[in-house]
Amino acid sequence: MKKKRTTIKDIANVLNISPAAVSKALHDDSRISAKTKAAVKRVAKELNYQPNHLASALRKGKSNLVGVIVPRTSSNFFSSVIQNIEEVLNREGYNIIITQSNESFKKECSNIDTLLFTQVDGIIASMANETVDLSYYEKIKSKGIPLILFDRGENDLNVDYIGINDYDSSFMIVEHLISKGCKRIAHIGGFRHTRIFNNRIRGYIDAIHRYNLPHDDDLLIESSLTMEDGRLKMQELLALENPPDAVYIAGDYAALGALQLLKEKNIDVPNDICLVGFGNEPFTSLVTPTITSINQHSEQIGQLAAKTFLERVKMDPLKQTLNKIILDAALIERDSS
Amino acid sequence: MKKKRTTIKDIANVLNISPAAVSKALHDDSRISAKTKAAVKRVAKELNYQPNHLASALRKGKSNLVGVIVPRTSSNFFSSVIQNIEEVLNREGYNIIITQSNESFKKECSNIDTLLFTQVDGIIASMANETVDLSYYEKIKSKGIPLILFDRGENDLNVDYIGINDYDSSFMIVEHLISKGCKRIAHIGGFRHTRIFNNRIRGYIDAIHRYNLPHDDDLLIESSLTMEDGRLKMQELLALENPPDAVYIAGDYAALGALQLLKEKNIDVPNDICLVGFGNEPFTSLVTPTITSINQHSEQIGQLAAKTFLERVKMDPLKQTLNKIILDAALIERDSS
DNA sequence: TACTTTTGCTTAAACGTTTAAGCAAATATA
DNA sequence: TATATTTGCTTAAACGTTTAAGCAAAAGTA
After folding, report:
1. Most buried pick, A209, A289, B151, B320, via CB within 10 A?
2. Does strand D come within 7 Å of the CB of A17?
3. Nucleotides in chain C with any atom closer than 7 Å to protein CB
4. Is the predicted pLDDT of residue A246 greater than 70, yes or no?
């Protein structure tokens, strides 16, 4: 009852030529006559031939699949990066497999296993918040499979990386807040062990020092940057005996949570407290007040990640040099500051 | 320089047994002695053996991959459905390939081609807004590959479907608005050619009639339900000589756009106009005012879609009966109504 | 004319696994 | 003791493709 797929053999039988000739004809091999090629393609179409990807992947040792690992797809940033990766790779005949870690180290490891098992030709990833143990990523490298990190990367892993200049962006935000007259600027950051969040914290601290603002330990809080966490940490800041007049939060979702709390407490943003987020998620321009944020250039990051992968597979492995691409981010000023 | 993968043959050589025995040992075949099994597994671990998925998929004619097609991953609804599909399928040894159509019919077709080419064992999909031509979906069915639709389905395609009761949800929303004292209720719906949107429109119309409210043609608008479109259609409604006192919008993003416009025009929600969305996206509880919406049970939908697929592949093809699962959705009342 | 080269195909092996069939040895049954 | 069954493996083919090697015929060259 099950339909047999048309194979290269079927085409060969119809035309009384060898399967090898058919394969070559379909790949426009120069040693096959134009007449045969035409005939093969005609019959292929007639029989509705679809190449068996598994067979060719097995034979060629190449699956034309690229794995993508993101903390989650629901954030606009990651979703947009993915979309751009896909666009670039599709053009070159690659397809992508998207997996989500949900910020869990365990899930991330199992995702890596899954992708390796599926025989992907490369992996493009942004690390989970939890991830500190890099042995799983080393595993990818040790298999000789190209690994490209973006956004959430790690300096210790000697791999290609595409991201924005977090330090500068952070510095820029603080300068912006100062220009608005803020004197006590707090920072709800991500966890320091993640490089990008560490850089944002460094940028914040250095800018504070540079402009001789109070560098109060209470004003710097590390967090998981979820919405709930944004609320919570904001509450902590408000409870200080000397609360801040501006809060820079290293993630838009957490900024949203914080804004929610401020509104509930009838604290006026930006008049009582200025607020700045990070990531330029679409909702930042939709809430009231709109939230000042940093545009991370998701489109470019996706495209560059894909192109870096393509370089890796195309180029001579010997003369490859590590790509560390750092883009300049843009501050998008809105009503919250 | 390239590292050779460990194969079943390598293990066989070490132990001086046949590759077949190794394969069976790894699969706990009853005809292999416990001693041999133990030895095989020990050596497999020592040599860091990873089965070649392509080879086994080719041989077994089964890739253990399931394709998922969604309009976009950035909406929380789809992202959550995907996550739940993945969880259920992973437990059964399946992995998923996620693709996005971006609401484009062309992209959807190319996604289907990609997935078929990748030899997926099944496809779980939610259709793009644009899709009216179903021939590509027929193609999946004609290959004998299980196809399961969710949310955006199509009655003409005789396939499994999981969704919510759009008609009832719509009816419920209108009743809710009436209970709040609204007299002129408008509906910004999706396009009628998509079944779910048609059902929502029918629910709206029937409820309007049932409660003897004015059924003005101007009050019913079809739209693509993007944020921008929400703004635009809201503007149209406001421009009416007899504008509505309540608007029910068949998508949260469009509702957000509409809310934005209303706020800009200083129209008070809910006092001047009540607003209800659809989908219960996280931001509905975050904006001011919070938006009343419909919870679509993304978790259950994902789980059921995955389980339906598993049934399809496990069960005898002969005694299979079509699954049409319709869940009851829940109205989440918030400040906007 | 005698050779080299090119063209256009074929043959056969390979990718790594699974599995049907088979076979000898061990064990059970009568 | 003779026969049947079970156990534990092996052999070989198969999945559908690609590709190295090879070979005859055609075309080019001297």
Report:
1. B151
2. no
3. 7-20, 22
4. yes
Q: Please, what is the Cα angle at A116 between A110 and A119, to 5 degrees?
A: 145
Closest CA to B332 of B275, B300, B292, B283: B292
B1 pLDDT band (50/70/90 cuts)?
A: very low
Joined together, the tokens standing for residue A142 give 């040790």
| DSSP state for residue B1 in the 8-state scheme | -
For an interface test with A, give the residue of B4, B118, B267 to mutate (most A CBs within 10 A). B118
The tens digit of pLDDT for each residue in A162-219 reads 999 999 999 999 999 999 999 999 999 999 999 999 999 999 999 999 999 988 899 9
Number of A to B CB contacts under 8 A, please give it: 112
Non-local CB neighbours of A167 within 8 Å, separated by 6+ positions: A199, A200, A202, A203, A206
Residue A58 and residue B63: Cβ atoms within 8 Å?
no
Q: CA-CA distance, B193 to B206, in Å (whole number)? A: 18
Share of residues in chain B with pLDDT > 70 (%): 98
DSSP character string of B151-178? SS--TTS-SEEEEE-HHHHHHHHHHHHH
Strand D within 7 A of A62 CB: no
End-to-end Cα distance, chain A: 67
Q: How close does chain B come to A144, measured CA to CA in Å?
A: 7
Average pLDDT over residues B165-185: 97
CB contact under 8 A, B102 and A119: no
Give the mean model confidence (pLDDT) for residues B257-261: 93
Determine whether the interchain pair A286/B227 forms a contact, defined as Cβ–Cβ distance below 8 Å. Answer: yes
CATH superfamily of B166-295: Response regulator (3.40.50.2300)
Q: How confident is the model at residue B3 (pLDDT cuts 50, 70, 90)?
A: low
Q: What CATH architecture does domain A63-163+298-326 belong to?
A: 3-Layer(aba) Sandwich (3.40)
Q: Is the CB of A63 under 7 A from strand D?
A: no
Helix (H, G, I), strand (E, B) or coil at B319: helix
Residues of chain A with CATH 3.40.50.2300: 63-163+298-326, 166-295
Q: What is the pLDDT of residues A89-108, one digit of tens each?
A: 988 989 888 888 989 999 89
**Identity of the amino acid at A35:** K
CA angle, A91 as apex, A90 and A94 as ends, to 5°? Answer: 40
CB contact under 8 A, A51 and B260: no
Q: Which of B224, B230, B223, B169 is nearest to B200 (CA)?
A: B169
CA A19 and chain centroid, separation: 42
